[in-house]
Amino acid sequence: MMAEVQHILIVEDDLDTAEMLSNYFEEEGYEAVMVAWGEEALPVALEKPPDIVVLDIRLPDIDGYEVCRRLREHRRTERIPIIFLTERSERSDRREGLRLGAVDYITKPFDVEELHLRVRNALRRASLTTLVNPITGLPTDPLIDERLATLLRQRDWALLSVGIQGLQDFSDRYGFVVSDDFLRAMAVMMKDAAQELGDSSPFIGHVGEADFIIISTPSKVNALSERISARLDQTLNFFYPVQDLEEAKEPRPRISLSIGVVTPQDGPYNSPLDIRVAALNAQAC
Question: Can you tell me whether residue 93 is helix, strand or coil?
Answer without folding.
Answer: helix
